[in-house]
Amino acid sequence: MRELGSGLRLGMAAAAAVLMLAPAGFAKDKTANQAPQAWGMQSGQTGCVIFKESDETETNLVNGQMQYSTVKQLEVVEQENAKLPQKKYMETQDGLQALDTISHQDQVKFVRIPKKYTPDQLKQAEAMCKEGMAGQ
Predict the structure, then answer these.
(1) What pLDDT sits at residue 71?
(2) How many helices (H) and strands (E) does the chain have?
(3) What whole-number distance in Å separates Cα of residue 136 and Cα of residue 124?
(4) Residue 77: partners with Cβ closer than 8 Å, 6 or more residues away
(5) What is the pTM of this model?
(6) Residue 9 lies in a domain
(7) Domain extent for 4
């Protein structure tokens, strides 16, 4: 009976892995059409930071079973007249609140692009950075 139980767990783990990977295929089509998104200071900003969406898979062993979780992050791609203290920020309420505070204190606009961005999406993000820039 033990062998059947461990085989069943292995089968369930394999099925879960397939389900975790399946949405990634659908996301590829979405990112090509996804427009950059701006937040933070929208006018009068003195600097701008372009982030790409990123994620990291964490693996934990709990009660003898592997558990996987994906942590969404924002990773700095370009900075113009801005210097952030970190290269990556967790996309949690605390992480986004910290970025919002930086945005208002340092008068910085943030622009988000997809994880697998195209050169055109990067150009759009760079153009968005210049919109509303103080002194322009």
Answers:
(1) 86
(2) 3, 5
(3) 17
(4) 50, 51, 52, 113, 122
(5) 0.70
(6) yes
(7) 1-33
